[in-house]
Amino acid sequence: MPASLCGTWDIISNTNFEGYMVALGISPNLRKIALKLKQKKVIELKGEQYIIKTTSSFRNYTTRFNVGQEFEEFTKGLDNRRLKSLVTWKGNKLVCEQTGEKNNRGWAHWIEDDKLHLDLYCDGEVCSQVFKKKGCE
Ligand code: VLP
Fold first, then answer.
1. Is residue 2 part of a domain?
2. I need a labelling partner for 58 at 20 to 30 A (CA). Which of 7, 11, 14, 42 fits?
3. What is the residue-wise DSSP string for 50-62?
C-alpha cells in the first residue's frame, strides 16, 4: 500500500482552479467565491471504504468509495452532475475516473515530500492542488 493519504490537510497552492471550474461550467459568480476559499481535505479509511471530505467556510463535499468498485457520484453543490466513478491505484497514485457528460474528467491523489497532491482534471484543463498536513510544517 502506498504512503497513507489519511489525515487532515490544509491547501497551500491551487494552480488553475479557475480553468478547471470553467471546464465544469461553474458560473462566474460561484467561481469568484470558490477562488477565495481555503479548502481542506479530510481523508479517512474505514474498513475498505475511503471517505474524502473537501471542506470550506462556504460549502462541503464528501465522496465515499471502495477502491476498484464503480459507484454513482452526484457532485452536489459543485457542478451538480451525475457521474459513474471508479477509483483505482495506479502506482503510488489514487486515481478516479469520472464518466459522464464531461470528457476526460477525474482526479489523482498522491503523497510527495510529506505533502498531499491532487490533480483535478476536466476537458483538457488541469488544476493542481497541494496540501500540507495539519499541525506539521
Ligand atoms: C466547483 C469545483 C466551491 C466549485 C464550486 C463550489 C467543496 C478529490 C475529490 C474527492 C473534489 C473536490 C472538487 C472541488 C472543486 C469543485 C466549493 C468548494 C469546496 O475532490 O479529493 O471528492 O473533487
1. no
2. 7
3. EEEEEE-SS--EE
The grid coordinates listed for 27 are 458560473
| Ligand 1 nearest-atom number relative to CA 34 | 3
Provide the residue range defining the domain that includes 88: 7-132
Rounded to the nearest whole angstrom, what is the distance from the C-alpha of residue 79 to the centroid of ligand 1?
9
Number of other residues whose CB lies within 10 A of the CB of residue 24: 20
Nearest to 54 by CA among 66, 65, 45, 62: 62
Longest dimension (CA), the chain: 41
The pTM score is: 0.95
Residue 66 lies in a domain: yes
How large is the ipTM? 0.96
pLDDT digits (tens, 9 = 90+) for 73-101: 999 999 999 999 999 999 999 999 999 99
Ligand 1 atom closest to residue 78's alpha carbon, by position in its atom list: 1
How many Å apart are CA 43 and CA 51, to the nearest integer?
6
